[in-house]
Design brief:
3-stranded antiparallel β-sheet; globular; 4-stranded antiparallel β-sheet; 13 strands; disordered N terminus; 34% helix; alpha+beta
């Protein structure tokens, strides 16, 4: 019996080794299958991640509209109006920022989680234009006149002197768009107050005739960093944006404007066109 066992043990290793190994062709087939599956799954995962960012963005917008409503309640229904119509819609005065921070907002809430440049180069946007103000980690101190931050959202606020630019509507809009200045504005459920930053500069080589991914401005001149639209598809075209309304609710609006002129795109100096 002992010799038989030895004999059996010596017969099998060659066949067992061949049965447990992969040939080169089999290995290539497995790699190809994995590559196909990854090609199928990665876009789906990217879509899920973007949907999560969109929901996070909407939550931040709700907090901002709530904060502005609190400001109005403490200031005879008046909203914090910029002092000039020459500023970009993203610019927010330091005193207004400090008030919003006191109502429960954080620095992160001023920026869309979908905007890669605002996340990567946040210090350039958060501190831009501050000649005297200093950030102590929770609020601005030594606030200087005219200091502001470049937020990741656009504020559809009038100015102290009154904006003269008309906001053009999308063809589907039934109500005229307006610059908001008070909580007593009519139809608060349809009045946009804070919106995702969808902006583009003229570029005939791009879709819609605008470049939404590389928007030059003061930050480019100071730090070599472009501003950009949030929620871009393929890092090229906007898919849409969240809209925060005066009554506090938010909605997602797909980007599908009538590009024949019926576009909400006021311009200030060398700023881009803004769309909502």
């Amino acid at each position: 019996m002992r010799s038989t066992r030895v004999s059996l043990l010596h017969k099998g290793p060659g066949r067992a080794g061949r049965a447990g190994a992969f040939t080169l062709i089999e290995l290539l087939v497995v790699i190809a299958i994995i590559a196909v599956l990854m090609g199928i799954l990665m876009p789906a995962l990217a879509k899920v991640r973007e949907q999560a960012r969109q929901k996070n963005c909407a939550a931040r917008l709700r907090q901002q509209t709530l904060s502005l409503n609190m400001y109005g309640n403490e200031n005879s229904t008046k909203l914090p109006l910029p002092t000039t119509g020459g500023a970009w819609l993203q610019d927010v005065g330091i005193n207004t920022v400090n008030f919003m921070l006191r109502t429960g907002m954080t620095r992160e809430m001023f920026y869309c989680p979908s905007n890669a440049n605002h996340q990567k180069y946040n210090d350039f946007f958060w501190l831009y234009g501050n000649n005297n103000s200093q950030w102590d980690g929770s609020r601005f101190v030594n606030v200087g006149t005219g200091d502001f931050v470049v937020s990741g959202y656009c504020f559809i606020l009038d100015t102290t002197g009154g904006r003269t630019e008309k906001i053009r509507r999308y063809a589907k809009d039934n109500e005229e768009k307006i610059w908001v200045k008070s909580l007593q504005t009519k139809s608060p459920s349809t009045r946009e107050l804070v919106i995702d930053s969808i902006m583009g500069v003229p570029d005939s080589s791009r879709n819609y005739g605008r470049n939404f991914a590389e928007v030059p401005g003061g930050i480019l001149g100071l730090h070599g960093v472009y501003d950009r639209t949030s929620h871009l598809k393929g890092d090229v075209d906007p898919v849409g944006g969240n809209i925060g309304f005066l009554d506090g609710h938010t909605e997602w609006r797909a980007f599908n404007p009538d590009m024949d002129g019926n576009v909400a795109a006021p311009r200030y100096g060398n700023s881009p066109g803004f769309f909502w």
